[in-house]
Amino acid sequence: MIWTDTLGALVAAFFIISVFTMLWKDNPVFRLGQQAVIGAATAHYIVLNFTSVYKNAIIPMMGGNLLLIIPLFLGLLMYTRLKNEIAWVARYPTAVLVGVGTGVMIAGTLRGQIIDQMKNTVLDLYNSFSAGSAMNVLNATLILIGTITAITFFTFTRKHTGLLGWSAKAGRIFLMISLGANWSGELVWYATQTIGRLSYIINYVIKIVILGG
Amino acid sequence: MTKKNQTIWYKMGNIDYRWLYVLSLIGFILPVLQPLGLPVQVSSGTIGYYDAIDKLPAGSVVAVSFGASAQLLDEQEAQFLATWKILFQRDLKVLFYCPSQDGSLLLQNELGKQVIPESYGKKYGVDYVVLGYAPLGEAGEASMSINIRGVYKADWNNKPLDELPMMKDINAAKDIDLLIYFYTSCTDIEFPIRQWVTPYKMPTIVATLGCCGPMAVPYFPTQIQGFLSGSGMGTELEVHGKVPGPGALMSDAKNIGILPFLAFFVLGNLSYLGKRFKWGEVKTP
Q: What pTM was computed for the model?
């Protein structure tokens, strides 16, 4: 192992442990680690972005693809936000971005995410009845009820009383279950990150770099 | 301290949260030191993901949109290593492209080191091609599906696409048989749905973070054929596809280390309910 690898591993281990010290309480070592990570990440992405612009715009332009001047110029206009007097200029590239973005997504949204989703919600129930699987019928029924009641929760044009009120309440429960599933995913994700870094320290830094295993 | 604050419900709600960290860290570290080999149950999303690759006829073209992130490597490493192994074990043409800068860096670091295509008898340019990074976004995905050469003139080594034998007949969605979409921003599931699945009926499988799984599930199995959510489902793919990797250790540690969190959830909720409904308190007239 060359010395730069050893140094890199030890520095990485130091910053990982410095971040873990926050579990005890806020301290200068944690803040050092936090700021170093933020600084390094910012520098990393600045270099990557600059390289990307250079590779995807500057080099092709020098090769004769002069049309790329337009997006490059629009991109540069974004920086007019930095000066209040000319900040309004940035609205033009923003308008182009919003226009292209909306144009690209609108057809797919209507068909793929609204019509197809509605169709599949109903078809799932029909297919599960046809297949004769009790568990599938239960799942499909729950999805259909959850979809309808959650939509009624977001109906604000009428007061949530009577049947609409009951439906909205049920919808709120489905939404809470959905948010709970999302949050548990977040928690497990944090656990994965923690295990990954602990594994790095134990299996690489300690066992290989320090003990030479 | 008042008498009210001495009830068991208050004490339960005031346990020093650092005990949770200590207990879960112990739970995380023990399986790292000594893997336990806990059983893994393979879910329908993983089976669908595997089957979508496994059922492809020989010579099929698979596009891998590799939008992984270096900061989230631990969450996706098991997924993509297992996927690559399964792809290279089969007679498929694999086209990698990266809509994230980190994806390109990770490919450089891991493809050829962790998974070596040549050890599966694959040859660069003939069986697999890496296009590298392009700032795609949704508009870029739409362009890719229409004209790959409009987005990428050359591969990541700056070799023109027309000089790569594999790319001879590949230039649009119609030339691709399966899309594998790796992403880390939860709403990015919408990109392949809107630009590949809806207009071209492209068979698509996706791999993402654990927290993004609930947003991918509504599209399964009708619009996407399978999905992997987090390292847990990466482990499932390792088990189901018989391609061992880093996921097993991760799952063991997660299964043990998460238990203190569950215990604290129960204690916290009992404390809340006990205080709210004044369980065990003597009612004074």
A: 0.89
